[in-house]
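Example record for the data management plan.
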Amino acid sequence: MGVRISDIELGRYRIGNIRYRMSCGPLPTGESCTDGYPYYMAMSHSLADGRCQLAARPCEQRPKSEIRNPKCVARYLISPIRYLVIPLLAIALATSGCDAIFGSKDDGTTDEVFDEGRIDPTLVDEVGYVPLNPFYSLSTLGGFDAPTDVYVGYDELIYVADRQGLHVLDLAGRPQAYLGDLGWPNGDTQPLRDIQAIIQDRLLQLYVAARRDTVIDGRTWDLPVVYRISGLTSGTPTLEDIIWHPFDDKSRSSNQFRNPREFGESGFSDEDAAFTGVAVLASNQVYVTRSGPLNVRDDGLPTIVAPFNGVLVFTTEGVNNTFISTLSPNQASLLSAIYPSAVATFIGPPQRTSPDQTEDFFIAQAPPNESLRYNVLSVRVVETTNGIEYRVDTERLGASTNPENGDGFLYGDFRFEQPAGLAVAADETGYLFVVDAAKDSLLIFTRNGVEGVAAPPGAGSLRPVKVSFGGAGAGPGKR
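Corresponding structural encoding:
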């Protein structure tokens, strides 16, 4: 008698009226051993000798997690009514281990992942990460050169910006397209350079915050721009519009100040400004964050033009209709925009027929050589009879006042150092992801502003589980 592995994998068998499930590791996702299988055969991994042990257990006694060893993860159904081999199989498993029966998946990469992860697989409540292989390292030009931003589009493509331009990958990391220069059909093509941010609107158009040269009265100015691009993934990239600083800043009260200029009282010029982030609304309007040193005069009075630090709102056609003056450009508060580095909204993919209509947003602040109590702010946008108001998000702020809510908070004192990127999960979780360049870390927060994610089923507490990671790391390439 023998066991044919293919039959074990594919069949659903029973012993008389009692069905058994054999599990060396967790059950497959979405399956329950109680669905017609009141008993299951559980192979637990022995940490002492590395072998699997077979035992029959009632399903109601099944623990929350049957994970023993991630390298011993065969999950099958078996029926001795056809093969009568459970005793022989139990002996074989006890003496030889899972690998001898079902084969081995061992390789150097797998060993390194689990060795460096330092996660005890016997822990039920642990949440951990493993890297995806292969790493995204190939571009159309062979490799990436100092990437500055990455964005997963609504079209399920991955956009990576680096010194060479804009690369497009599929979800497997295979190069699909590349854009190294950009211009109008009649000419004036320039390199796509100094990219700060990438985003996609619900029309699948790309917004790219970068820099571009222009000549005025014989002088070449290096100015921040936001490109709107269509057709990149179809092989016909088209420049639809350019938002320029300062030409398209409606907050500058006269045309005199909408041309780039030097500001004698400060020593700065419009070349010192930068567009650092773009975020889309349901209407396909966009928020654009601008950062720079010109925010007050030397005497402390307001500048004669709008401060560099701030958030501007543009229509789909690229027309600036708002500069959010409620956000202070130089005084840290719960409503400020001091060297804003990123902005994020709650909008979801265009496939959704009822997108989130809120215009609320998150803004990250990263002033050089200055620590802020709150670097990442949540701003509520409320329409009133007197117009739109920008308010403090008291819900997320209030969550930080009760330590019973969690082990960390978006509004925790000095939680960030140099937040460089923001993203919001466009699903029911509403998780906020924050990349901190100074900490080399990715921090994750719940919809309510508590650090962590929802506790896994069977956890002893409902408090969110902290899953933020980064820093020096533990792998061979740690910084």
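Summary line stored alongside the record: Residues 373 and 424 are 22 Å apart (CA to CA).
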